[in-house]
Amino acid sequence: MATRVELCKAEQVAVGTALRVETSGLTVAVFNLDGTFYVTDDACTHGPGSLSEGFIDGDVIECNFHNGQFDIKTGEVVSPPCMIPVKTYPAKVEGGVVVIEVD
Q1: CB 43 within 8 A of CB 33
Q2: Contact between 47 and 66 (Cβ < 8 Å)
Q3: Which of 11, 27, 62, 100 has CB 3.0 to 4.6 Å from 55, enough for a Cys bridge?
């Protein structure tokens, strides 16, 4: 059964930015793309980079460590050196709070 996890208030993540959130044993990046929220694991799949500290260009996040790129919406690799997609979590806003469900 999935567990509901509250991550942050939506107002904490300005449009075009990301926020690192550590809660319930997870470390995730919460992205606000034009008012729609997306959540991925914060750790780059290639190295020790933090995706929430990366550079956002449209719906792509560039890791700040080796400059690999991921699609924020799907987690798919856009540009090497990354080879493994990053895990994504369907996100929604409930009562002004960004929430996900995890198994």
Answers
A1: no
A2: yes
A3: 62
Within 13 A of 94's CA, how many CA atoms are on the CB side? 10
Integer Cα distance of 93 and 82 in angstroms? 30
Instruction: Show the domains of the chain with their CATH numbers.
Output: 3-102 (2.102.10.10)
* Contact (CB, 8 A) for 84 and 74: no
**Cα(41)–Cα(95) distance, integer angstroms:** 23
- The enclosing H or E element of 61 equals strand 60-62
Cα 78 to Cα 44, 56, 61, 72, 98: the distances in Å are 13, 13, 9, 10, 26
Tens digits of residue pLDDT in 21-63: 999 999 999 999 999 999 999 999 998 899 999 999 999 999 9
Q: 0.90 exceeded by the pTM?
A: yes
